[in-house]
Write a structure and sequence with these properties.
Layout lengths: L1 H28 L13 H10 L6 H13 L14 H36 L4 H15 L2 H15 L13 H31 L2 H8 L4 H28 L3 H6 L5 H10 L3 H29 L7
C-alpha cells in the first residue's frame, strides 16, 4: 500500500503542473486585465501598476516567477483586494467553505445512503417511487432556484432563519446554505446507492445469506459494503467541490468563502486570486481521489495493489 500511494502521488504532481500551466496562460489570454476600468487610468499610473505587479515582464518570465513563488507556498498579492495577499484571503475564506462543505457532505451521506438502501429494498413500490421522485427533483432543480425558495419560505415567510450573512459562523446562519448544498448531493447519492444495492442484492453471496435465514438488517449491511463502492468513486470530486466552496450558494447567502472570492476574482480579472483558487481546488481533487482509491482497496480486496 505505501508504494501504491507513492505511485499515485508521482502521477498527481504532473497533473497539478498541467492544471497550473493551462490555467495561467488561459487567464492571460482572456480579454481584459486587472486594471481595466470604466474610467481608464492615466498612462503613468497604469505603467507603475504593471511594473509593481510585474505585468510588464514577458509572459514566460511571469510564468516562471509564478511557479517559483508557488513552490514556496506563495500565491502572490491580490490585484483586486489590494491590501491582502491570496494566502490571507484563503486563510479567512477556506475554513468557512470547508465548514459548510463538510457539513453538507455529512448530511448528504447520512440521508442519501439510507434513502438509497430503502428504495432498493422496496424496489418498484411506493417508497421506491417516492425516493426516486425526490432524487429526480433534487438533481434537476438548480441551487440558484432552491436557495431563494428556502430564503422566502424559512427566512421571510416563517422568519425562522436569517436569509443571509455569516455572523461569525452562527448555526442559524449556516442551516439554509448547508441544506442548499446538500440537496443535490442527497439526490445523487440516493440514486447511486439504490442502483448499486439492487445489483448487489441479486448477487449469489446475498442469495446464500438469505437462504441461511439471516435477518434483513445483516443482509443489508453485507450488501451495502459492496454497493458503497460506486458512491465512494463519486465522493472524491464531490467532496473537493463542496469543501472548496460553492460559487452560487456563497454568493446568494453572502458567505465569505473562497467560492465568493473566485467570482469576484474572475469578474475583476484578479489573476492571482483565480489561479490560487484553481490550485487549491486541484489539490483537493487529487487528495480526495487518492483517499477514495485507498478506501476502495480497503473495502474490496480484489482491487488492492500488488
Amino acid at each position: 500500500m505505501p508504494s501504491y500511494i507513492l505511485r499515485r502521488l508521482a502521477t498527481a504532481l504532473p497533473t497539478l503542473f498541467v492544471v497550473v500551466t493551462l490555467s495561467f496562460f488561459l487567464m492571460r489570454l482572456a480579454p481584459g486585465g486587472p486594471f481595466d476600468l470604466e474610467q481608464p487610468l492615466e498612462a503613468k499610473v497604469m505603467a507603475n501598476l504593471r511594473r509593481i505587479y510585474r505585468l510588464d515582464q514577458p509572459l514566460l518570465a511571469q510564468y516562471l516567477t509564478y511557479l517559483g513563488a508557488l513552490l514556496r507556498g506563495d500565491f502572490g498579492p491580490s490585484f483586486y483586494f489590494r491590501d491582502f495577499t491570496i494566502g490571507e484571503l484563503f486563510a479567512h475564506g477556506l475554513p468557512v467553505s470547508m465548514r459548510l462543505g463538510a457539513s453538507a457532505l455529512l448530511l448528504a451521506l447520512a440521508i442519501g445512503g439510507p434513502l438509497g438502501v430503502l428504495a432498493a429494498f422496496r424496489h418498484n413500490r411506493l417508497a421506491d417511487h417516492a425516493v426516486m421522485g425526490f432524487a429526480t427533483a433534487g438533481i434537476t432543480i438548480p441551487s440558484f432556484v432552491v436557495a431563494p425558495v428556502l430564503q422566502l419560505v424559512f427566512g421571510l415567510g416563517l422568519a425562522w432563519l436569517p436569509v443571509g450573512g455569516w455572523n461569525g459562523g452562527a448555526v442559524r446562519n449556516t442551516i439554509l446554505p448547508i441544506v442548499t448544498l446538500a440537496l443535490p448531493q442527497i439526490a445523487v447519492i440516493a440514486r447511486m446507492m439504490r442502483a448499486a444495492m439492487i445489483e448487489t442484492l441479486c448477487a449469489d453471496h446475498i442469495r446464500t445469506l438469505r437462504a441461511q435465514g439471516l435477518p434483513a438488517a445483516t443482509i443489508a449491511l453485507h450488501a451495502a459494503r459492496g454497493a458503497a463502492l460506486p458512491v465512494l468513486s463519486y465522493l472524491g470530486p464531490a467532496a473537493a467541490a463542496l469543501l472548496t466552496g460553492s460559487v452560487v450558494v456563497e454568493t446568494i447567502f453572502g458567505i465569505p468563502g473562497i467560492g465568493r472570492y473566485f467570482v469576484e476574482g474572475a469578474l475583476n480579472r484578479d489573476y492571482t486570486l483565480v489561479m490560487g483558487t484553481v490550485v487549491v481546488v486541484a489539490i483537493f481533487v487529487l487528495v480526495f481521489n487518492l483517499a477514495v482509491d485507498i478506501l476502495y482497496a480497503l473495502l474490496d480486496p480484489r482491487v488492492r495493489p500488488e
